[in-house]
């Protein structure tokens, strides 16, 4: 064997060994929980408390002050107004529109321009309409994601129905996961996601379009069967994730295929919807109802079962995500989508 051939073979062996160590390291990092994000409390956390404490009673028609605010928002930041106008397609939209505008004002009222425009409401405003370049609704990633989610609307609604949950809540979590993927994988977004208008499917440390970890998916399955679990939902849910006889011979592989199927996202949505429902059940048993707290449920989706500790004043947070140069928390961004009005025709915004 020539010296050159030996050198080439040695290099190949070295590369294969390095690749093996990389994947082995990734495997153990996942198993030991080293890939988990610590998560931080959202900057606007204190404003969410006021949002839920100051619920207003609004009749079926929109009040004049809400329409005035909507007019200001449409002049001030059209990308935000678009979803709010979509809410007006719903019957008796007044209550929903009022809450959605209040949610947007958590962020808008930080702007002096917005406050000044609102003070006059009607008149000759001294600024021209323009989108905030850092607002997620103004980015091409959202335009692509919006179309991709609409394609899956039927499957998403069915998964939420099976789990007895809110489809819009499920989409709130999906939106954050996908925006995080789209903005962190810019080249892949430009070459694949944007032209094809499809969702990104993860298959490494987190799986599928919902970015669920293997141990979380396994816990969702176990909680369906364990009557003593605080996450137990009842006998009507016990068999929703049963494996077939063939799948049962290798559940790990079957689970991976379920969650990472690029052509059928039904299992990915169902696992996520059941996770959210199980968290609600745990908190309800502890005496705290968070069914209408998308920011808290999304935070816990991001942090996992182990971080779900029912309490009177839970914090909004989770992983920090930078989109368009602006940093969001996982739960805070989910809140923004939930009350944005975006995709309200496919996933109506409901106020309890």
Task: Summarize the structure in short.
The protein is mainly α. It is 57% helix and 5% strand.
Kindly describe this structure.
The structure is a single chain. This protein has 352 residues and is mainly α. The chain has 2 domains: 1-35; 40-338, no CATH class. It has helices spanning 3-31, 45-53, 64-76, 78-87, 94-108, 112-120, 140-151, 153-163, 167-184, 186-196, 214-225, 245-248, 251-260, 266-285, 294-303, 330-338; strands at residues 40-41, 202-203, 207-208, 317-318, 320-323, 326-329. The strands form 3 sheets. Strands 1-4 form a two-stranded antiparallel sheet. A two-stranded antiparallel ribbon has the order 2-3. A two-stranded antiparallel sheet has the order 5-6. Strand 5 (320-323) and strand 6 (326-329) form a beta hairpin. The longest helix is centred in the N-terminal third of the chain and has 29 residues, at 3-31. The chain is globular. It starts with a helix and ends in a 14-residue tail after the last helix. The model is unreliable at 11-35 (pLDDT under 50).
């Amino acid at each position: 064997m020539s010296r050159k051939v030996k050198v080439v073979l040695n290099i190949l062996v070295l590369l294969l060994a390095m690749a093996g160590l990389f994947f082995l390291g990734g495997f153990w990092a996942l198993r030991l929980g080293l890939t988990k994000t610590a998560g931080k409390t959202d900057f606007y956390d204190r404003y969410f408390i006021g949002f839920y404490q100051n619920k207003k009673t609004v009749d079926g028609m929109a009040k004049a002050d809400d329409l005035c605010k909507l007019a200001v928002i449409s002049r001030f930041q059209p990308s935000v107004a678009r979803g709010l106008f979509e809410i007006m397609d719903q019957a008796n939209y007044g209550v929903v529109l009022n809450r959605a505008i209040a949610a947007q004002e958590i962020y808008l009222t930080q702007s002096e321009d917005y406050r000044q425009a609102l003070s006059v409401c009607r008149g000759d405003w001294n600024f021209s309409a323009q989108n905030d370049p850092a607002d997620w609704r103004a980015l091409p990633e959202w335009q692509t994601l919006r179309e991709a989610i609409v394609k899956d609307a039927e499957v998403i609604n069915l998964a939420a129905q099976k789990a007895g949950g809110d489809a819009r809540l499920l989409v709130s979590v999906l939106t954050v996961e996908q925006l995080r993927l789209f903005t962190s994988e810019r080249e892949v977004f430009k070459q694949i996601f944007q032209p094809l208008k499809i969702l990104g499917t993860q298959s490494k440390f987190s799986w599928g379009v919902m970015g669920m970890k293997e141990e979380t998916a396994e816990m969702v399955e176990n909680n369906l069967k364990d009557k003593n679990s605080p996450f137990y939902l009842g006998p009507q849910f016990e068999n929703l994730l049963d494996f077939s006889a063939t799948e049962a011979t290798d559940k790990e592989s079957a689970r991976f295929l379920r969650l990472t199927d690029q052509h059928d996202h039904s299992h990915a949505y169902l696992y996520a919807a059941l996770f959210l429902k199980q968290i609600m059940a745990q908190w309800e048993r502890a005496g705290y109802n968070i069914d209408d707290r998308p920011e808290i449920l999304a935070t816990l989706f991001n942090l996992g079962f182990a971080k779900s500790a029912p309490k009177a004043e839970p914090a909004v947070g989770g992983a920090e995500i930078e989109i368009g140069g602006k940093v969001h928390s996982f739960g805070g961004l989910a809140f923004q989508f939930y009350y944005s009005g975006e995709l309200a025709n496919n996933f109506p915004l409901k106020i309890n």
